[in-house]
Amino acid sequence: MHHGLSKNCMQAPYTTRNKAKAIKHSLSRCDDLFPLAKVATYVNASLHHDSHIDYAVTSCSDDVIGFEVLDPDINFSDHLPLMATVTVDYPIDNSGHLMPDSGHAYVQRQLRWDYADRASYYDYTGFHLTPILAELNRLTASGDTCNNNPSLRDVIDAIYDDIVSVLQSATSLFVQVHNKDFH
Questions:
Q1: How many CB atoms are located within 10 Å of the residue 25 CB?
Q2: Residue 48 region, left (φ>0) first, then alpha (ψ -120 to 50), else beta?
């Protein structure tokens, strides 16, 4: 299921590294703001396993007026959907229509893979992800579990961060970014 890693690693996915990032960026977990909503977000009834693996964070705690983990009748995943209700202040004209905010220009950006140097992207990611894969293979072959190696959660977080960093670097080097609807 998790390449030889113990399912116990899933019991506390919000690791020290994640907590430090949240503190650094002044983020609050929504389930901490609404303690009654601090329930399992991953539920696998057939394996008799649940955990708090999914969470939502906010930089504006005062704007979150509700948070809950939903348990819909139809859900094609072991992960339960999260719902945060937030207040947003937008200027509205007398007829109830949203007024444009002249002080902010919201621009949606998109990656243009049709203009990307995909061969270079492939070579770059292959070169930089290979040592990460080797580390991951070494880790899974070692038989370490969260029970005999408590720092394993931080190692997994570091590997995740390294993968994301390589992909972001490759994207910034080899994939053009354009404003949505602008070519």
A1: 9
A2: left
* Contact (Cβ atoms closer than 8 angstroms) between residue 71 and residue 83: no
Q: Where are the domains of the chain?
A: 1-89, 107-183
pLDDT at 94: 75
For residue range 36-50, list pLDDT tens digits in order. 988 999 898 888 888
CB 29 within 8 A of CB 23: no
Question: In degrees to the nearest 10, what's the CA dihedral of 98, 101, 104, 110?
Answer: 30
DSSP 10: G
Cα separation, 17 vs 32, in Å, equals 17
pLDDT at 100: 65
Q: Report yes or no on whether pTM surpasses 0.70.
A: no
Q: How far apart are CA 40 and CA 14, in angstroms?
A: 13
Running DSSP on this structure, what letter comes out for residue 95? Answer: T
Q: What digits encode the pLDDT tens for the residues 149-159?
A: 667 778 888 89
Sequence-ordered list of residues with C-beta below 8 angstroms from that of 79, at least 6 positions apart, any chain: 41, 42, 53, 54
Instruction: Give the C-alpha separation, 8 to 18, whole Å.
Output: 18
**Which own/partner pairs from 146-149 qualify as long-range (CB within 8 Å, at least 24 positions apart)?**
146/5, 146/6, 146/8, 146/9, 146/11, 146/12, 147/6, 147/8
Residue with tokens 């490759």: 170
